[in-house]
Amino acid sequence: MQRFSPFLFLAASLLTACALGVSPKSEKRTNATLDASSITNLQINSSSGNVTIAAAAAGNANVAFTKTTPDLGVSEGACTSDQHIDGTTLVVTVTHDKLANCIIDTQITIPAATTIDASLDDGSIKITDVTGVVSAHTGDGYIDASLASPGGESPTLNDSFDTSDGNIQVQVNFAPSSGNISLKTKNGGIKLELPVVTKFAVDESHQNGTFTNDLTAIPGAPFDVTMTSQDGNLTIAANQ
Predict the structure, then answer these.
(1) Contact indicator for 59, 111 with CB cutoff of 8 Å
(2) 19-49 burial, b if ≥16 CB within 10 A, otherwise e?
(3) Which regions in the chain score pLDDT beneath 50?
(4) How many domains does the chain have?
């Protein structure tokens, strides 16, 4: 009698899935709604997956994780996620076993004025309609951000975005009166959209690519734009 071989069964299952065009993966989603009345800061550390952050009504916060893993051969602990409130800071952490083929994407809604500090090893970042100070970094992925006005007669902006490999696109939906925005990538293009009335100075640096400014920079203006790319085009355009 021929003995049953688990290895051959596993191999046959994978081959069958590939032949049928079916990806042998599963998704698991977890969701947590939090009391955001004390939250003024968001700290994200993620070694795997994309992160999206969107503004929510005051007092509301939500963190959702979508975990994608192969059905076969990956332990439950290969990728882990956690969220908790530490004082006034919402701390979100995603860990990833680099030997495992699993990814956790993170979706967060927070009060618009929350200060954001996001650091990713691998993954893209999308930020929508926030008004707090933003510092966003990823080692490999694009950054896409839409920034709303913090209010007041003389709104300021002091944000930074950088990626080692990917494009950066930031849309500023108000004219900052002072501050600085820093955008840096080693391999990719950068596009910054500002209202036409914005008074700004620009400091740009690129090795391979072009620099295009559709607006008018004013040397010495109280709002500074810093753009750096080793390999990619730099563009400042009107926010229509």
Answers:
(1) yes
(2) eeeeeeeeeeeeeeebebeebebbebebbbb
(3) 1-22, 24
(4) 2
What is residue 72's predicted lDDT score, i.e. its pLDDT?
53
pLDDT tens digit sequence for 157-205: 999 999 999 999 999 999 999 999 999 999 999 999 999 999 999 999 9
Q: Say whether both 40 and 88 belong to one domain.
A: yes
pLDDT tens digits, 51-61: 999 998 777 89
- Domain finish residue from 124, 158, 180: 124
231: buried, middle or exposed (CB in 10 Å: 19+, 13-18, 0-12)? middle
As beta bridge partners, residue 179 has: 157, 223
Structure tokens at 199: 């008074």
What SS3 class is residue 216?
coil
Rounded distance between C-alpha atoms, residue 206 and residue 154, angstroms: 31
Q: Quick check: is 85 in a domain?
A: yes
* 157 and 113 in a common domain: no
pLDDT at residue 73, as a whole number: 54
Burial of 186 (0-12, 13-18, 19+ CB in 10 A): middle
* 156 within some domain: yes
The vertex-125 CA angle with 123 and 127, nearest 5°, equals 165
Match 């500002």 to its residue by tokens. Answer: 194
**Of 124, 150, 168, which one is at a domain's C-terminal end?**
124
Distance of CA 166 to the CA centre of its chain: 11
Same domain, 151 and 120: no
> Does some domain include residue 177?
yes
Question: What residue numbers bound the domain in which 185 lies?
Answer: 142-240
